[in-house]
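Why does residue order matter? Because the sequence determines the fold. Keep that principle in mind as you read this record.
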Amino acid sequence: MAEPNQNIDHLVALCREGNRNAQFEVYNRYYKPMYNTALRIVKDSHWAEDVMQEAFLKAFTKIASFKGEVTFGAWLKKIVLNHSLDSYKKINRAAADPLDDVLYKVEDDGYLEEVKIDFQQLQLQQVGAAIQSLKESYRLILTLLYIEGYDQEEICEILNITAGNCRTTISRAKESLLKKLKGL
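Structure:
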């Protein structure tokens, strides 16, 4: 069994050699945040568990492609996120609004003042529930932006959408979220 404080770089090196104990240690260190990432996308605990496990298997089989340019956790999270999105899209193809089909014209006339809400005063669960209740394209984009912490450029790559479509969808999603939060 690997030591609990073992350096992740050493564990990754052992995983590259096929060491099962190292793989188990990596799994134990990362399964909870990776499960939470999957759950925020697929919205079902059993499905999130399956997606997360499949993503770990993929990561261990492709660990040779990990170059260390980002942290191992970030690399693994990207695999989990992509696998979650792919799985979600396959199952919900008919239910989800394809982001590419939703094209908006962005108007930046400056006449709309941005509405501010003090999110610290709202319960975190209320915000989470409000995000979950949004239409799917809005829920996905706000989850990636606010919960997973991706910037707009990364979201464009992940969802394979244009920068303009991303900005507009984020803007409309925020507007929709604000309406829901004001109704609380």
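The radius of gyration is 19 Å.
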